[in-house]
Design brief:
- With about 425 residues, the protein is of the alpha/beta class.
- It folds into 2 domains: about 200 residues, 3-Layer(aba) Sandwich (Rossmann fold), CATH 3.40.50; about 200 residues, 3-Layer(aba) Sandwich (Rossmann fold).
- The protein is about 40% helix and about 15% strand.
- The chain is built from 13 helices and 12 strands.
- It has a 7-stranded mixed β-sheet, sandwiched between helices. The chain has a 5-stranded parallel β-sheet with strand order 9-8-10-11-12, covered by helices on one side.
- Helix 13 links the parallel strand 8 and strand 9.
- Helix 4 crosses helix 5.
- It starts with a strand and ends in a 5-residue tail after the last strand.
């Protein structure tokens, strides 16, 4: 099929490359000069598995909006719906809340709808941006016309692994109230994978997307609560969660069922904070999502207090290893590692060093006795030889023992 993209950023470009690899002809439009430069030079400045490899030999080009409309049968809209920086989950949760900023999405959809009207063409317009329930009816539909066959088609993918997640999903979600558009989208996804296609109303799809993300936060907070209790009573949190993970009839799966740091990225914290705003706006009985974020914060706060106490007790510097929200990535958005640093500084001075091999240049800071806190589960940290007399605080429980070094696996008493 002939596919168009409005927005070729960190979500749109990897998905466009995946579609092209499956045999589709893809073009795109983006208002950002830096994004257009990435497509033109065929060089991606961020880490995204397989994206650089595919882009190097890609035929995707950025063209004017009118050209996207002419060339495309289906147009995907992957335009940002940002939250303010204070709602990303890298700083303590403020008392007030806010919805996402839909101004970029509204402008993109309005311009696209006008272009479709001017050309006299009908097109399927599939929005993949994250929105809160009720948003498309309230914010987007007033800007549409009869030429737009609207679908809401958000993906359950993570930055860094977008292409793999897109091509091999658990299921694909489609909110669509036009039967012809739904059938056409089903034909398209038959060329991508064999995963189930779940077709529902647009408002149901809006709910499914954000509740999927926030359910993950709940599981991680639970697993980290098990870790804290295991640490206090001399248990092993990995043994506990391994057993619970066998209960696939009632607990569903073992994904995210392991103690460590909180969840992060561009979706989970901000979706919880946005739903917290919605819960307050709708005046429902309990702000469950805000409490999940408070739980996440207090767990990171507790780890920060523990690291600071260790440094003060032994009069050594604090070196934080890891800044990114997930292993083998250079993306820091929503990172619990950054939230940890925020709390550490709240209690006392800033950590003496914060280092991430995927973010920073130069060798790792392993030249002095210190308290090393593992804030991101990068595999390379397992190979580090820490200075004798140092303490390594490892909430993930994966750093191997070292002679002359105290390695503390939080919540894992063997």
């Amino acid at each position: 099929m002939r596919i168009g993209f409005i927005g070729l950023g960190k979500l749109g470009l990897p998905c466009a490359l995946a579609m092209e690899e499956k045999g589709h002809e893809v073009c795109g439009f983006d208002v950002s000069e830096s994004v257009c430069e990435i497509v033109k030079t065929r060089k991606i400045p961020y880490l995204e598995e397989r994206a650089q490899e595919l882009l190097q030999f890609s035929r995707i080009e950025t063209v004017p909006l009118a050209e996207v409309v002419k060339r495309s049968e289906i147009i995907f809209v992957a335009v940002q719906t940002p939250h303010e920086p204070r709602f990303e989950g890298v700083t303590p949760l403020p008392e007030d809340r806010a919805d996402f900023d839909y101004s970029f999405l509204k402008e993109a959809v309005r311009n696209l709808a006008n272009e479709l009207r001017d050309q006299g063409e009908d097109r399927i317009v599939a929005i993949i941006s994250t929105v809160l329930p009720g948003t498309l009816k309230r914010e987007i539909e007033p800007h549409l016309n009869e030429r737009v066959k609207l679908c809401y088609n958000p993906y359950f993918i993570a930055m860094g692994t977008c292409i793999e997640d897109f091509c091999d999903p658990e299921f694909t979600l489609l909110g669509c109230e036009d039967d012809w558009a739904a059938r056409r989208m089903a034909q398209f996804y038959d060329t991508i994978h064999k995963a189930p296609l779940f077709v529902t109303s647009i408002v149901n799809a809006e709910m499914i997307k954000v509740f999927y993300n926030t359910f993950i936060t709940m599981k991680i907070c639970f697993a980290n609560t098990v870790m804290e209790i295991a640490d206090a009573v001399g248990g092993d949190c990995d043994e506990v969660t391994a057993a619970l993970s066998l209960a696939t009839k009632r607990i569903i799966s073992n994904a995210y069922m392991r103690g460590g740091m909180g969840d992060g990225g561009g979706c989970h914290p901000r979706d919880n904070i946005a739903l917290s705003w919605l819960a307050r706006k709708l005046d429902i009985s309990y702000d469950f999502f805000g409490q999940l974020m408070k739980c996440r914060e207090r767990q990171m706060s507790g780890l920060a207090a523990r690291a600071l106490l260790e440094c003060r007790l032994f009069k050594v510097p604090c070196i934080v290893l890891g800044k990114t929200f997930k292993p083998e990535s250079n993306l820091e958005i929503g990172s619990p590692a950054r939230l940890f640093v925020c709390f550490y500084h709240w209690y006392g001075p800033e950590p003496d060093v914060c280092y991430d091999p995927y973010v920073d240049d130069g060798p790792p800071p392993l030249d002095e006795k210190a308290t090393y806190f593992i804030a991101t589960q990068h595999e390379v940290f397992k190979t580090y030889r820490f200075p004798e007399g140092s303490t390594v605080i490892d909430p993930f429980g994966y750093i191997p023992p070292q002679l002359g070094v105290t390695v503390r696996h939080i919540g894992r008493h063997q």
